[in-house]
Amino acid sequence: MSPGVRRAGAGQGAAAAVQLLITLSFLPSVVEAQVTGVLDDCLCDIDSIDNFNTFKIFPKIKKLQERDYFRYYKVNLKRPCPFWAEDGHCSIKDCHVEPCPESKIPVGIKAGNSNKYSKVANSTKELEDCEQASKLGAINSTLSNQSKEAFIDWARYDDSQDHFCELDDERSPAAQYVDLLLNPERYTGYKGSSAWRVWNSIYEENCFKPRSVYRPLNPLAPSRGEDDGESFYTWLEGLCLEKRVFYKLISGLHASINLHLCANYLLEETWGKPSWGPNIKEFKRRFDPVETKGEGPRRLKNLYFLYLIELRALSKVAPYFERSIVDLYTGNVQEDADTKTLLLNIFQDTKSFPMHFDEKSMFAGDKKGAKSLKEEFRLHFKNISRIMDCVGCDKCRLWGKLQTQGLGTALKILFSEKEIQKLPENSPSKGFQLTRQEIVALLNAFGRLSTSIRELQNFKVLLQHSRDTSTLWWERGTLR
Predict the structure, then answer these.
(1) Is 399 one of the annotated binding-site residues?
(2) What CA–CA distance (Å, rounded) separates 9 from 297?
(3) Where are the domains of the chain?
(4) Which residues of the chain have pLDDT under 50?
(5) Which of 272, 292, 397, 415 could be a cystine partner for 296, CB 3.0 to 4.6 Å?
(6) Where do the annotations place FAD binding (predicted)?
(7) Is 254 annotated as a binding residue?
């Protein structure tokens, strides 16, 4: 090869390297630049939320989710889709329910006349063996007969309380307790037209939106041109606060779920042993401003907005749990007391946050119009919870139903401030009540949001590291 050709080739290679370096360094900075500052519809900046979540909330909410009261969630995964014939299947074989083999079931939950409840053994080896035996991502029910007896005891205790918001699912013969710690939310391979039909139905049918205005980047909708996104957001900004809030809540929930999948992705599987971890490529595909045509940063800001809404709900419901009559019952007196102490500590942190969303600005118009709008808001959200029964992957359905119920409980709290303020100290109240399932869903759903924001910080670090590594490679190349 002649020197001229070598120089030309080297020049082209250098130009390509420079372009690669520019691309790698540009994308992370754009994500960081666009997901900063003050959020719309509230006076709170993202950096303050990041710091508050990282140093105060995340460590405590993670610990709370490991407590017996909050790790078991009762759910009916067999309800048929009420809107269309189910046709969804995971692209990998890991979404269906398979019980863990009896030989792998940990030490059971002790129950009986003493009402004592001993913790399930939680050694890493047992959990890994059980998870491997029940296949990747599949829901398993490592519940012994003693555990089931304990749950019956829990139900008797709940029945003795003054509940007025009982869910049909709790009584269904098809409902089952699921150990959330053994069924982490992560990538399952559930995607394609079935998954998008679910989200399409949520966005297109439930956001107070005329069909003439199309949500941007909707894969099921025909292309309408480059102006679709702007026409959508122009329409959105013209709505009243309540309807903007509704859309942002759904978008934030969608972003949070996508972040969980990106952060806990199936990277490889060797000899039957899966490797899970963050997938930067998948994160960019879902959130990068270039690959999403500017939509990604909007989604992430809506995640922060949803976090603020649920954070506000926790601060508002604190008086309900501060009463001595409220007991997070499992039968183990000491553990129940420790769990409540930790929960009240979290509530104190939520109340200390200085930049809460002001829910008083919602439904504040004339009484008749406000009441009608609130009811429409409630019915739209109830419909969304029904759509979750159309998810074709059991594990995805589990976490979708839990997070939807958690958000619904948060909205119930925000709409019940007066009733909460009137709660008696030493007797049940007929004005406001939370079921065990609502409490478990509320705290776990907020825990998922807290985890999402924490994972977003991790992705920023990984993107920065990717940029720094590329810079070092380029510098080494130029020195040769």
Answers:
(1) no
(2) 38
(3) 34-112+167-218+230-478
(4) 1-30, 33, 88-93, 96-137, 140, 144, 160-166, 168, 471-480
(5) 292
(6) 186, 188, 199, 251, 254, 286
(7) yes
